[in-house]
């Protein structure tokens, strides 16, 4: 029997149609479409800005790790230099105080010229080595100062950028929330039913993205919810199912009974383990593509009024009962979108 509430709403809409010009309805539809486009655009911008911020965080973290490693190497080099400096100083001091030598001035004294030259050469070599280490230490210290300054600049710049990006993200969130609120108010004002709400909540462009993922591994954000709680389908299949479901509801006074829809890879393995040889091999099921449903409520019985109605009407909305499901295996409950294979 027709739903009295549905009949009343139908009467209201008929009166509204008679009173309001057609252009007003078209204008409202255009407004809804515009709001939806804006909401979709805001979502895309939000995802882009968030990803940009995450990438910047990763770059900063990598830079800081590299900086810490460099500073650690410099600290180790300076420590080694400190360990070497003291024994070199003692060695240089003892060479000046050797018996028969007068330090670097011995070459001008009355001692053995050969010994004086050798002593002076040793001291010179020691002094040169020590000076090289001192120069190296100065070089390392200067480099450390430059790195520390660079790190400070990098951290300051990234802090500013992160603040700006976060402000952008917050702004986009607010914009998205505002658009969503406007859309909901508009839908409520138009007394939109569940079909309209589901249609506006399911972006058909998600279907192309969903097809990029392997069977049974489609992320939830690329799927659309069905009127039946707990079930999802690929966007194009879901949009077609909404209309099929509404037609079914008009005929039988209730929504379609769904037993299964999108099936992830883990669920496919569980079902195959229960029915090996009958269930599809995991990774090949159209359930894993988000374009198949298993129905109940009478449709599961071949020859029933509900099954016959589906055979006569499902094709109008892109849904078919595949040829194999008539016999091998026999599954009158299994229906697919966009395929007869």
TrEMBL record:
Residues 29-94, 130-189 form a coiled coil. Keywords: Coiled coil, Signal. Pfam families: VanY. It comes from the Bacteria. One of its GO terms (biological process) is proteolysis. InterPro entries: DD-CPase-like (IPR052179), VanY-like_core_dom (IPR003709), Zn_M74/Hedgehog-like (IPR009045). GO terms for molecular function: peptidase activity. Residues 232-337 form the D-alanyl-D-alanine carboxypeptidase-like core domain. Residues 1-24 form the signal peptide. The keyword Zinc does not apply. This is Peptidase M15. It comes from Actinomadura decatromicini. The lineage of its organism: Bacteria, Bacillati, Actinomycetota, Actinomycetes, Streptosporangiales.
